[in-house]
Structures are given as C-alpha cells and as structure tokens.
Specification:
CATH topology: TIM Barrel
Strand order of the largest sheet: 2-3-4-5-6-7-8-9
CATH architecture: Alpha-Beta Barrel
Largest sheet: 8 strands, parallel
Order of helices and strands: HHEEHEHEHEHHEHEHEHHEHHHEEEE
Radius of gyration: 20 Å
Oligomer: single chain
Number of strands: 13
Structural class: alpha/beta
Bound molecules: N-carbamoyl-L-aspartate, zinc ion
Low-confidence stretches: 1-10
Mean pLDDT: 93
Strand content: 15-25%
Number of helices: 14
Length: 395
C-alpha cells in the first residue's frame, strides 16, 4: 500500500484549529496581494452599499445536461450570465466536434426567447482523442476548450483519461499549436490516496509536470478547493495558468456534509475540505489577483439520484450563485473586487471581450426555493429554503 502522506505532513494534526497560530501562519505564507484596509472597508460598506451595478458575469464552468433537465436549468444560467463554458460529461460524452456542434444546437433551441446567452462548448478528452480532432475543433469555431477528466474521478468520467503522459501528449501538443485551453478536473483517482488529498496529489504528480512540459499550454484548474491549489496557481506568472472557484467551496467546509446527519445536497467533487482551505481560497479570490474567476460548477441531479444509497456528486447552484459570491465578497470586506472576479478575469484570461451589458445586485432579502420541479422530477438547489441578501436583477 502506498502512503502518500503521514499525518504530520498533512493538515490532519489533532490539535489543528482554524484560528490557531499554525493556520494564521499557513495563510500568511500565501503570496497574494494584501488588502490592509479590508476590515475598515467592510464596516464602511455594510452601512451604505444597497445596489451593485456590474458588468454581466460569465460562468466559466457549467453543467447544462440535456433533455428535460437542460430545459429546466438553462433559464437560470441564461438569466444571470452572458456566456458559459459548457461541460461535456454527458452520457455519452461529447468527444467529437460534430457532437459539440449538435449539443450547442440543442441548447440554443431551448434558450428563452430573446436571450443572448452564448454557450461555449468543450470536448471531452479520452485516451483516443486525435490531434486531427483538435484541428477540427479549432476550425469549427464552436469548440472553445478541451476538458480533462481523469478516468473515474467524478460524475460521468468513466471514459476519461487513464494515462495523460502515456496517451495524450500529441493531442496536448496540438492544443498548444491551436491555442486551445485545457480545463482540468484536478484529482487523482488512486483509491489508496485519501479523498481529501486527491487534489494535492494531482497537483504534485500530474499538473506540475504537465505545465513544466508544456509551458505554452493554457491550463485552467477547475473548481479549486485547497491551499495547495492556491499555492500552485500563484507559483506561475499570470497568463497561462488560472483557476475557477465555486460558491460551495467558498461558503462550505467539510462539516457541512455531516451537519445534523448526512447532507447529500452538499456532496460534490472535489469534496468539500477543511476550513483552512476554504479560508485560503477566499483570500485568493478577494485578493484582487486576476488568476481566479467565476465557475459555478452548477451540476444538477434529479433529487432521487442525490437522496439514495449511492448518491451522485454535484451541487445545483445556477440560480443562487451570484447572490452567494456577493455574500462571500461582502463578508470578506471585498465587494470592490467582486466584479473583476465575476466579469473581467475570465474573459481577460481567455482573450474574449468583456460583456457590454450590465446586471444589478440589489441588497434585498429573498428566499431560495426548496426545490425546482420539472417534467421528470425535482432539483434541490444549494441553500434551499434559506434567505439570501443580494438579489440579481436585470438592471
Ligand atoms: N462537481 C461535481 O460534483 N459533479 C459534476 C462533475 C464535476 O465537475 O466534477 C457533475 O457533472 O455532476
Ligand atoms: Zn469536476
Ligand atoms: Zn463540473
């Protein structure tokens, strides 16, 4: 059996506490821009900020699914976001340009009338993806990026990559040539690696060697969850390596999985982590660093597929995400950094224009619905039944 981490190396020390000197030191060791006046700004703002007008955000990591589930969830994303990178982990997965073009058509067909929402499509990387397919993808003008799922890492990843260095290097080299970004679900799948260490081990064994080998490849580490991921992102010059961050990894730690009993609607992958990791990614996104941008990872599953003996991983947050990001930035005294995270850093990284339309977040209490009902069942959203204080309005 391979033991990657002894307890003394990991953050599993029994004396560990989120407010201990050890955690302060760990957080201070992150080389992020500092915001010395944050506390003062937080107090000043909380008394007067009633409305935030901002450039329309984009969602750089979204699961729209297909069929009636697509129809049920698309209006939520289309209402708040200008564009979204649409994940390809359907059944069967979107492995070819032809499939991506057809999937995009099926999304556009069910868009609410008048919506300008623009779905940016992705290809699902497999051991057999060819360099030729990357050329086709680039020529199509429809495929925006390629998604790496290590085989078995997450929902519908069984057709993913088994050996990236052994099987995918020619494809990755072609992606460099075509300036095609690689989006990464960054977890190893080795069952000997503790599930809470899978992101850290992926960074060490796959991502770091990959970026060293292909320094011109544009890589986005999706849904980062750990201080280790923040350190990884900060260790490269701005430009080719960036990360998306979800509302759940900013607002919840792993206690939320077990509060008062098992909480299947808080189960997603990468799984929620310790509080210190949550604090590290809050510091990262609110620091003003341009390497982090909004990616909800909104991942709807029909309620019965979450509340069962082997429940699916994925949190549905498309309808609440903007309110939740605003909550995080407000609580950190960093509302002035919210718009860059939601609306500037993503398009700037990808070389796209920022959206020209606006959205307004109003300080107004609203209750998250308990469920959304659609023809095949119901979906339970993140923070179901709870009251939130920022309400997105069209203008
Ligand atoms: N995040 C999740 O827990 N689930 C996602 C897949 C993914 O993004 O890993 C899904 O498609 O359901
Ligand atoms: Zn993922
Ligand atoms: Zn996802």
């Amino acid at each position: 059996m391979r033991a990657y981490y002894s307890p003394s190396q990991s953050l599993a020390s029994p004396t560990y506490h989120p407010r201990s000197p050890l955690s302060s030191l760990l957080l201070q060791s992150l080389s992020l821009p500092r915001n010395p006046n944050r506390a003062a700004r937080a107090i000043a703002r909380s008394s007067k900020m009633e409305e935030l007008a901002m450039t329309k955000p984009d969602d750089w990591h979204l699961h729209l699914r297909d069929g009636d589930l697509l129809q049920a969830v698309l209006p939520h994303s289309a209402k708040h976001f200008g564009r979204a990178i649409v994940m390809p982990n359907l059944k069967p997965p979107i492995t070819t340009t032809t499939m991506a073009v057809a999937y995009r058509e099926s999304i556009l067909k069910v868009l609410p009338p008048g919506s300008g929402f623009d779905p940016l499509m992705t290809l699902y990387l497999t051991d057999n993806t060819s360099a030729e397919e990357i050329k086709l993808a680039r020529m199509s003008g429809v495929v925006f990026a390629v998604k790496l799922y290590p085989a078995g890492a997450t929902t519908n990843s069984q057709d993913g990559v088994t050996d990236i260095f052994g099987k995918c290097l020619p494809v990755l080299e072609e992606m460099v040539e075509q300036n095609m970004p690689l989006l990464v679900h960054g977890e190893v799948t080795d069952p000997d690696v503790d599930i809470f260490d899978r992101e850290k081990v992926f960074i060490e064994t796959i991502l770091t060697p990959l970026v060293q080998r292909l320094p011109r490849l544009k890589v986005v580490m999706e849904h980062i969850t750990t201080i280790d991921a923040v350190r990884f992102i900060e260790s490269y010059n701005e430009g080719n390596v960036a990360a998306t961050v979800t509302p759940q990894h900013l607002l919840l730690n792993r206690n939320s999985l077990f509060r008062g009993g098992l909480q299947p609607h808080n189960y997603c992958l990468p799984v929620l982590k310790r509080e210190i990791h949550r604090q590290a990614i809050i510091l990262a996104v609110t620091s003003g660093s341009r390497r982090y941008f909004l990616g909800t990872d909104s991942a709807p599953h029909e309620r019965k597929r979450k509340e069962c003996t082997c429940g699916c991983a994925g949190i549905y947050n498309a309808s609440v995400a903007l309110s939740l990001y605003a909550k995080v930035f407000e609580e950190a005294g960093a509302l002035d950094k919210l718009e860059a995270f939601t609306s500037f850093n993503g398009p700037d990284f990808y070389g796209l224009p920022r959206n020209s339309s606006k959205i307004v977040l109003r300080k107004s209490q609203w209750k998250v619905p308990e469920t959304y009902t659609y023809s095949s069942g119901t979906i339970v959203p993140m923070f179901a039944g709870e009251t939130l204080s920022w309400l997105p309005c069209d203008n």
